[in-house]
TrEMBL record:
Superkingdom of origin organism: Eukaryota
Residues spanning the membrane: 270-290
Protein name: Sterol-4-alpha-carboxylate 3-dehydrogenase, decarboxylating
InterPro entries: 3Beta_OHSteriod_DH/Estase (IPR002225), Lipid_A_modif_metabolic_enz (IPR050177), NAD(P)-bd_dom_sf (IPR036291)
Subunit and interaction comment: Homodimer.
UniProtKB keywords: Acetylation, Cholesterol biosynthesis, Cholesterol metabolism, Endoplasmic reticulum, Lipid biosynthesis, Lipid droplet, Lipid metabolism, Membrane, NAD, Oxidoreductase, Steroid biosynthesis, Steroid metabolism, Sterol biosynthesis, Sterol metabolism, Transmembrane, Transmembrane helix
Keyword field contains tRNA processing: no
UniProt organism field: Umbra pygmaea (Eastern mudminnow)
Main localization (coarse): endoplasmic reticulum
Family: Belongs to the 3-beta-HSD family.
GO molecular function, one term: 3-beta-hydroxysteroid dehydrogenase [NAD(P)+]/C4-decarboxylase activity
Organism ancestry: Eukaryota, Metazoa, Chordata, Craniata, Vertebrata
Length: 345
């Protein structure tokens, strides 16, 4: 049974703290009495007790200023997967993470919690109750995921008890909740354009969706358990709601909650995947002439049409993790937080 040890210092920095997950994390850290600095390329809000440092995480000098006197760093910055920009993913997730590690060690930071992704092991085919023992994807589903793999490897490798720098990676999956800029807005946009009528495949595939407060809880537990004697040093942990759900039931609950019709008609998985691949290739080939972004990318089709859910046994055992908000409550809170995205508004 895991025993939680209180952190020696509650002065922390959240890199990517202006983002969806980052801001929820900042709010919870403040509630728990931490002193918080945010480092982000943009400032999206103001909060009493939070010091903002605006800058690019590839800039070590900027980071060093933000990390002065900080003992714990959460790194949850990344370009959005939908940006589909290989050079940007490589610069920020790989080069930038190397810079973050260097800055942390130079600034005397003792602990670093990385937000990785459960998708680092996903190759577009079924994963059922996958453990952290699964190998990294040899053929990741997109460049974003490819760079998340490299990023996680870098951070876990940097864990060094002798030098007093401890690291851990949290792998959430399908984060949702109030202020999410991705899942609900894309879903509603697709529904408003009349494209949410179809279910890809037979609709029985189970997927993890994780309420944002549970992801935050996993990060803070990891930070608090990160001690030289702890088994979590240099390891990766899945953090989910531990309630795999049919992908299309989850989407239908969100849509119906917001006043839209649930998808009803089935389309064969491989037909949709093939079409999405063709469209994506066309969009790449025609990029110099016309800019169009297909809604159904091969990556989204794979995510929507396969089983991919992960075991959280290791997080339960090593850090006493237990989701705090059920899927049902998470969906209710999320739906209520988007009055402006309701049908007819
Ligand atoms: N949203 C999801 O379903 C999942 C997200 N993740 C990971 O969780 C983390 C947080 O994701 P979200 O909150 O959803 O994304 P987000 O886009 O809301 O937040 C990312 C933040 O990083 C900042 N950022 C990007 N490039 C930067 C740079 N060069 N320098 C400084 N800041 C920079 C952005 O300004 C933004 O505030 C990311 O690492 C993502 O890979 C992992 C699994 C699932
Ligand atoms: C079919 C359709 C239009 C669904 C809309 C929802 C999708 C936008 C989401 C469903 C699964 C989500 C997901 C991610 C982004 C948003 C979805 C594709 C991630 C790729 C975000 C970053 C990660 O690290 C992994 C996530 C997996 C699930």
């Amino acid at each position: 049974m895991a025993t939680r040890i209180r952190p020696s210092s509650k002065r922390c920095a959240v890199i990517g703290g202006s983002g969806f997950l980052g801001r929820h994390l900042v709010e919870k850290l403040l509630d728990k009495g931490y002193t918080v600095s945010v480092f982000d390329i943009r400032q999206s809000y103001e909060l009493p007790g939070v010091t903002f440092h605006q800058g690019d995480l590839c800039d070590k000098l900027g980071l060093l200023t933000a990390l002065r006197d900080v003992s714990l760093v959460f790194h949850c910055a990344s370009p959005a997967p939908a940006s589909d920009n290989k050079a940007l993913f490589e610069r920020v997730n790989i080069q930038g993470t190397k810079t973050v590690i260097e800055a942390c060690t130079e600034a005397g930071v003792q602990k670093m919690v990385l937000t990785s992704s459960a998708s680092v092991v996903f190759e577009g085919t079924d994963i059922k109750n996958g453990s952290e023992e699964l190998p990294y994807a040899k053929k990741p589903i997109d460049y974003y995921t490819q760079t998340k793999i490299e990023q996680e490897k870098l951070v876990l490798k940097a864990c060094n008890k002798d030098r007093g720098f401890l690291t851990v990676a949290i792998r959430p999956h399908g984060i949702f909740g109030p202020r999410d800029p991705q899942l609900v807005p894309i879903l509603v946009d697709t529904a408003r354009r009349g494209k949410m009528k179809f279910i890809i495949g037979d609709g029985s595939n189970l997927v993890d969706f994780t309420y944002v407060e549970n992801v935050v809880h996993g990060h803070i537990l990891a930070a608090e358990f990160l001690r030289p004697e702890s088994p979590i040093c240099g390891k990766a942990y899945h953090i989910t709601n531990d309630e795999p759900v049919r992908f299309w039931d989850f989407m239908s609950d969100m849509l119906v909650g917001l006043g839209y019709a649930a998808p009803r008609y089935h389309l064969p998985y491989f037909l949709v995947y093939g079409l999405a691949l063709l469209l994506w290739l066309l969009s790449v080939l025609l990029r110099p002439l016309v800019a169009f972004k297909p809604t159904f990318t091969p990556m989204r089709v794979a995510l929507a049409g396969t089983h991919h859910f992960y075991s959280v046994s290791k997080a339960k055992q090593d850090m006493g993790y237990k989701p705090l908000v059920s899927l049902k409550d998470g969906i209710k809170r999320t739906v209520e937080s988007y009055p402006h995205l309701r049908h007819g508004v």
